[in-house]
Amino acid sequence: MSAQTATLKPTTGNNARRDFYERIGALSMAPLWESLHQLVPPTPAPKYVPAHWSYDAVRPFLMESGSLITAKEAVRRVLILENPAMRGSACCTPTLYAGLQLILPGEIAPSHRHTQSALRFIVEGEGAYTAVDGERTIMHEGDFVITPTWTWHDHGNDSSQPMVWLDGLDIPLVAMFNAGFAENYGADEQPVTQPEGYSDARFAHGLLPVDWKASRQTSPIFNYPYARTREALERLDKDGPPDACHGHKLRYVNPANGGAPIATMGTFMQLLPKGFASAPYRSTDGTVFSVVEGAGESTIGDTTIRWKKRDHFVVPSWARVTHRADSEAVLFSFSDRPVQERLDLWREDRGGK
Ligand code: GTQ
């Protein structure tokens, strides 16, 4: 320590500072220098942790919830996947909500709308529907369905089996902006005004209606069916070697602008060939995964989790991750990457250890 610094240091030390903090505290002020390093960390220091929800463990509770409350009474019968380090917050990551929604045969989850955007990723079952702005889509395992911001939506199950899907919403992000609005439709179901497959025909074939103009950032495609996603991944696997970090990884796209189908949430699907072991990877978008096919394990920082079909897990921001596939595996994932990219914040690191 130089002589000059020593003379600048207050002789009364910590007591004088604490007393000073108390006096400025009365004016709702605080000293920056006590928290500067935390506020502007050299690298991301997330306050949430890797976590894993095995479907074998979760499913009995989901089904039990089905006998505790109806979809109608619950409005949305969902078990929230809460980050263990953020209990009570309904957050899976600080910006993303995730939950598993159950809808039993014959049930209706009543119509409402809100400024929060939702994605549905179908985990189990066939044949239930979601209706958005007058159009219904029948859902199958592995389908990715969007519910854009401020659109009326209700869900129903006319099939003979329970249906479970992953709900991904930007609830924490919207809460941070204090931009949440919501209202009920006033009837359980909105009227169906379009035939099934209406948006698929117009927007999901590499074509757009000639005079159509996008009025919002959200994709005009309603349902991205797994059959087509799987076909693309299979073809990629035939055509060449996988990416060292990602395997064969695709991002879902809004065909009208090249961006993410939902402005606030990026969605991805990747195939890991049997025996594939990925190179270490990290990025600033904390990511929620849903295992569509296969089994394997992922090491996230110091935590290793073993996963299989229908399991869910979360990888925090900037945590180094490696995946290993015991059998050919397919992983769906979502994150806040499009928001970070828009804000020039997103970073990745494909480096080694
Ligand atoms: O389907 O509208 O998991 O509003 C949480 C909030 C689902 C929905 C959730 C919601 C919904």
Put the structure in a nutshell.
It contains nine helices and 22 strands. It has helices at 3-8, 13-25, 36-39, 55-68, 71-74, 171-176, 198-203, 226-239, 337-342; strands spanning 51-53, 78-80, 97-103, 108-114, 118-124, 128-132, 135-138, 144-147, 153-157, 163-169, 182-184, 223-224, 248-251, 266-272, 282-283, 287-293, 295-300, 303-308, 312-315, 321-325, 329-335, 348-349.
How would you describe the overall organization of this protein?
The chain is 21% helix and 30% strand. The protein has 353 residues and is of the alpha+beta class. The protein folds into 2 domains: 3-39, no CATH class; 51-349, Sandwich (Jelly Rolls), CATH 2.60.120. It has a 6-stranded antiparallel sheet. It has a 6-stranded antiparallel sheet with strand order 2-3-10-5-8-12. The longest helix has 14 residues, at 55-68. It is globular, with a radius of gyration of 23 Å. It starts with a helix and ends with a strand. The model is unreliable at 1-6 (pLDDT under 50). The structure holds 2,5-dihydroxybenzoic acid. 2,5-dihydroxybenzoic acid is lined by residues 76, 78, 99, 101, 114, 118, 153, 167, 169. 2,5-dihydroxybenzoic acid binds at residues 76, 78, 99, 101, 114, 118, 153, 167, 169.
Indicate the structural class.
Answer: alpha+beta
Bound molecules: 2,5-dihydroxybenzoic acid
Q: Any idea of the CATH topology of the largest domain?
A: Jelly Rolls
Whole-number mean pLDDT: 95
Helix content: 10-25%
Using only C-alpha atoms, the radius of gyration works out to: 23 Å
Q: Can you tell me the overall shape?
A: globular
How many structural domains? Answer: 2
Cα distance, first to last residue?
35 Å
Q: Please summarize the sheet with the most strands.
A: 6 strands, antiparallel
Q: What is the percentage of strand-forming residues?
A: 25-35%
Low-confidence stretches: 1-6
Query: What would you say the CATH architecture of the largest domain is?
Result: Sandwich
Keywords: Dioxygenase, Oxidoreductase
Pfam family, one: Cupin_2
EC number: 1.13.11.4
GO molecular function, one term: gentisate 1,2-dioxygenase activity
